[in-house]
Write a structure and sequence with these properties.
2 copies of one chain form a homodimer. By secondary structure, the first copy, chain A, is α+β, with helices and mostly antiparallel strands. Chain A contains 2 helices and 7 strands; from the N terminus they run E-E-H-E-E-E-E-E-H. Chain A has one domain (10-115): Phosphoribosyl-AMP cyclohydrolase (Ubiquitin-like (UB roll)), CATH 3.10.20.810. Helix content of chain A is 13%, strand content 32%. Chains A, B: Pathway: Amino-acid biosynthesis; L-histidine biosynthesis; L-histidine from 5-phospho-alpha-D-ribose 1-diphosphate: step 3/9.
Chain lengths: 121, 121
């Protein structure tokens, strides 16, 4: 299926394939999508850092991609994944761990200071 | 909670609150989000038509918003909704009705020609 990258990197919704929880939103360019399909692990394109990245390359919290869905306009995709660890850099399973009213709806799965700062120890 | 609209309208992931199926991706500006919160029905901002719209205003397939979640960066939101009819203008429940390989994973819930074209009859 042809994906429309005419306007640059496209949004990728990431969903846990088992629980169906929405984990995060990121972006992919053509190369990130190709690497995701070729390796079976989620890759993205960071618009702020202007570079390709593999989810979990630092934290180990990789995402094995079970299925990729495409929307009707072919300009948004959905990765259904098996999440190792947790998706959010804050330590929560999902980046969507708060309501708009500020209530936390889920706790931390890991301590981000241990995962990101003490990696070399 | 402060939502970051500095870069313009933000992505809104829309998920069925009961089945947890991801239904669509759209965008909201500050006004669309305000109307969504005030009315309890999903409103969006169309970047191509440059205007606010209410989901279902033509089709009747409105979305009652049960909960709004915010991501860690506060620049993406998630509407958990009760979907009337179906979310996709093609007649499928979700806009994500195909795999990237082109396989349809779900059938139509309604006939778009009847819903959109013969509305005045």
């Amino acid at each position: 299926m042809a994906i429309n990258f005419d306007s640059g990197p496209i949004p990728v919704i990431v969903q846990d394939s088992a629980t169906r929880e929405v984990l995060m939103l990121a972006y992919a360019d053509k190369e990130a999508l190709r690497l995701t399909r070729d390796t079976g692990y989620a890759h993205y394109y960071s618009r702020s850092r202007r570079k390709l990245w593999k989810k979990g390359e630092e934290s180990g919290h990789v995402q094995r991609v079970i299925r990729i869905l495409v929307d009707c306009d072919e300009d948004t995709i959905l990765y259904q994944v098996e999440q190792q660890g947790a998706a959010c850099h804050t330590g929560h399973m999902s980046c969507f761990y708060r309501t708009i009213g500020g209530e936390e709806i889920s706790g931390r799965v890991f301590d981000p200071e241990k995962v990101y700062a003490n990696k070399g120890e």
